Amino acid sequence: MKAKPNILIIDDSESDTMLMEEAIKDTSIANNVYIVNDAHDALSFLRQEGQYQSSPRPNLMILDLKMPDMDGHEFLALVKNDDEFNDIPIIVLSTSSDPVDIKKCYKLHANCYIEKPVNFLKFRKVISVINDFWLGIANLPPEGG
Amino acid sequence: MSDDAGKIPDSDHILERLERIGGMGHWRLEFDSQWLFWSKGVYNIHGVDPNEYQPDLESAIEFYLPKDRAHVQRCVERAIADGKPYTFECRLQRPDGDIRTIVSQGEIEQDEDGNNIAVFGVIQDITELREYETRFQLAVLGSTSLMWDWDIEADYIYWTGQVSDLLGHASTTDLPNNSLDFFKDLVHPDDHLKLKNAFADHFAKKTPFKVELRIRKYDGAYMWFTTRGQAQWNEEGKAVRISGSITDVHDLKIMQQKLIRSNEDLNQFASIAAHDLQQPLRSISGFLCLLKEKYGDQFDDKATKYIDQATSSAENMSELVRDMLEYSRIETEKVCYKLCDTEVVVADIARSLEQMFEKENVSIIVENLPQIVCDRLKMHRVFYNLIENAIKYRSTDDPVIKVTAEQQEDMTWLFRVSDNGIGIKKSKHTDVFKMFTRLHKDTEYEGTGVGLSICKKVIDLHHGEIWIESSPDQGTTFAFTIPQPVLQEV
Questions:
Q1: Could you give the ipTM of this predicted complex?
Q2: Do residues B199 and B325 share a domain?
Q3: Which among B25, B177, B322, B447 is placed 20 to 30 Å from B110, CA to CA?
Q4: Chain centre to alpha carbon of residue A141
Q5: Distance of residue B174 Cα from the nearest chain A Cα, in angstroms
Q6: Phi/psi of residue B147, nearest 5 degrees
Q7: Segment A35-55 mean pLDDT
Q8: What is the CA radius of gyration of chain A?
Q9: A121 CB burial (10 A radius; 0-12, 13-18, 19+)
Q10: How far does A95 lie from chain B, in Å, by closest CA?
């Protein structure tokens, strides 16, 4: 049996990550969800540093934009320039509807930008569509090699 | 052909015309005989009739204003003593009281032995010229501006006005020198390129010369000045001279900078507030939803109703925050003018609102809309808000929305979005464009009251106007204009 895909959620809002976990639980494709609350931790997670030494390589990352210290844009710039991790799809899920933010994300090679809906039903729908599309329909880069 | 054709008029005739046109006159005083001759022009300038007045030295000097007399006498006496030509300016008073300013020039006539025999003089009435100058100088003094005139080839700047007030230097003569390099030295190093480019553009492309510079005052502090000018070009198209003004705009500039900063702050505040407010709202509505889903069977109807109420309040607030953010963004975002087919814009909107049209049974009529130069995204917002509005306040039977356009004589396009819905009272026609104005209760019609404010702001940015043509039960027409070609700020 194929291993369950690993999703890394990078978001500083505890309530948002809780809601995301709830929403992901209900989706049709089984997966492992990992949550980090800031971009520095996300880098450690990827590089398996510190407390993240046994972390798996994520198959998909869901990234928030407005985070203290290192924000989503900076994280994108770092990861998308890192040959080891730049093939992992990053979905930006942010409250911002600012065209400047959106454009900047794509310029930094985000794979997709989605505005976080405030309405929970819509939010859940978005999470489920992300799962269906990225883990069900899209072919993700093969691991290793 | 008359007999006079080709004949040179006699010299007396020429002289008379010359004096009349030039406001001049000539006179001669023989020292031995003390005979004083005045030409017709001299009589005219003095305002006396040759038949009534015979000039002599003593009475002639009486014409000059008492305080100028000594000066006149001194000038003439010195000229006689030195045997050299002279020039001076003075004022005389005509018998009718009118005071004229004249410039007087003359030379000494000598006999073969080198003895002075006469003075020959020319006077010219320069009253009007001096009045212009005085008026100009007063204007310069009264303004907070300095006038400058740069002779490019000689590289000499002539300054007029209160240099002391403006730059802190005691006077124009106090300036170490009048070359452009000296002026450049007063300009803040970071503004040198700006000045150079402004000159270059003006000289080559003849664009208006206007540039804001920081200039070092006498005390060493840099202050903001605006300088404007206009060059003169010779036949080869080379700028030979440029003159203009320089005005203290420091306070204005500082105010403007503060305003820009506070606008930026406000925008940043709006965007942070929007983000930080959305997050808790999502959490409130999300957990309420989960609460209802997971524990719903333990709630009675009243509890469920409370939860629904709280959920919808959170959502309303979130919509409000979003609209506010959008409103604040319109002003701060750069306006991007491009040719845009408004028919395509409206078609796109109709497509995205298709479900709403079908659900409410609304039909939309779009009549040949033009291509205009505008900010497409913002104009999309205007049409979207107006059409959505028209659907919202539609007629109960057979609702129709019409979007039309017509071009006016001055090229301005006039658009109309009309419905046959509930209409708006005349007294409310200006209110609706104000922020958060809602004419109906939440329970009747949903909305935040920001949509039309956004429309107005976008139309303002395009230098157009928006207004309402409506009365209750007569339907509503929103009309707005977009001037073409669009006026772009530089």
A1: 0.76
A2: no
A3: B25
A4: 15
A5: 53
A6: -100, 145
A7: 94
A8: 14
A9: middle
A10: 6
Q: How many domains does chain B have?
A: 4
| Cβ-defined contact of B278 to A116 (cutoff 8 Å) | yes
The range of the structural domain enclosing residue B427 comes to 337-482
Q: Distance between CA atoms of B139 and B185, rounded to whole angstroms? A: 28
Contact B278 A98 (CB under 8 A): no
Domains, in order of start, for chain A: 6-133 (3.40.50.2300)
Q: Which residues of B touch A22 (CB under 8 A)?
A: 286, 290
Considering the domain architecture, whether residues B259 and B272 belong to the same structural domain is answered as yes
For residue B286, which residues of chain A lie inside 8 Å, CB to CB?
15, 19, 22, 120, 123
Q: Do A19 and B282 touch (CB under 8 A)?
A: yes
Q: Are A98 and B281 inside 8 Å of each other by CB?
A: no
Find residue B209's DSSP bridge partners.
Answer: B229
Reported as type and span, the H/E element at residue B454 is helix B451-461
Cut 0.90: pTM above it: no
Question: B332, B361, B393 — which closes off a domain?
Answer: B332
Q: What is the pLDDT of residues B276-299, one digit of tens each?
A: 788 888 888 889 988 988 898 999
Interval B201-256: pLDDT, tens: 898 888 889 999 998 887 888 889 999 999 988 888 888 899 888 888 888 999 99
CB contact under 8 A, B285 and A15: no
Per residue in A68-109, pLDDT (tens digit) is: 888 999 999 999 999 999 999 999 999 888 888 999 999 999
